[in-house]
Amino acid sequence: MAPATPPPPSASPPATEPPQHSGTALELLVHGVGGATPQEMLDDPRTVRVTGDTTAAVYRRTEDAHGEKHPERYRDEPVAEAYCWSGLTSGNASRALWLLLLPFMVVNLAHWMRPTATGRTRAVRLYGVLVRLVALSLTVLLTAAACEVALDLLAWQCAGADACAERRSWLGFLSERQGGWWSQPGRRLALAAVVPAALVGLLWYLSNRTWSAYESQRPLDGEDFAEDESFGVVADHGPDADDHPRPPVPVRPALGRPGFWYGRRLVARLRAAHTAAGFLTVAAAVAGAAARYDRGTEGPVPRFIGAAVEG
Questions:
Q1: By residue range, what is the domain housing residue 78?
Q2: Which tops the pLDDT comparison, 232 or 293?
Q3: Do 84 and 97 have their domain in common?
Q4: Are residues 187 and 128 in the same domain?
Q5: Is the pLDDT score of 304 beyond 70?
Q6: Kind of pairing, strands 47-52 and 234-235?
Q7: Total domains, the chain
Q8: pTM to 2 decimals?
Q9: What is the β-pairing status of strands 26-30 and 79-84?
């Protein structure tokens, strides 16, 4: 049997060039469920917190706090960072309130799982818009559920029925039989609207805490990168004004960019949009019930307002 003929050199796949390194490399150290101090993880008693809070934070050695500004010192070794998250698994019962943000965390993960924008800019932008609309609908859905319980079931139906109000003494001041100041339907709804409004305020408070501790922390070296910057090793910006080819410019990976986690303005706008959507949902629930009575009154103005609000 004749030996197999080796494939020609042209048939072999081209050799891949090793990725070019630019800037300072980082080494992220994460402890296990047992927990550890930043001094133990970095093997240095002198550490400094570079971002985060007392719950979860990233630490560095004191001498490495501004390593990005001196890349010549770290050509042969990376800058070590220790992520300490033991505070996330300990605390009082109030930490269970963070479960309210669990659906939004899943939507945020879906947003960060979008494909790269290379050659598909419109599709990626459409994907981002749809994911953010889904997240906004979660805020509306959660607030509407609170409005359903507080405004409809309690203030409107239970407090308006004598049998239901008598079995629940804490609703007695809303009962129509007692004839108190809060027994009128409009005042009952206005008082019950405090519950979903407080829920929206709680969501704002939790979001503002994470924003203040993480997204609003500026990059260590003061730099920032565009959000649509391509993922890759080098970027070709085309010829210059004299039609001469420009040399490729190194592009850092996404996690290596100083501004990757910096979302002060973006997250602030998203938080404001979700807060406004929540309060508008509460206002629509209160106005929708009153609009039915406005449509039954005489006069063109109340009827027009009632028809516009009720749809």
A1: 22-90
A2: 293
A3: no
A4: yes
A5: no
A6: unpaired
A7: 2
A8: 0.65
A9: parallel
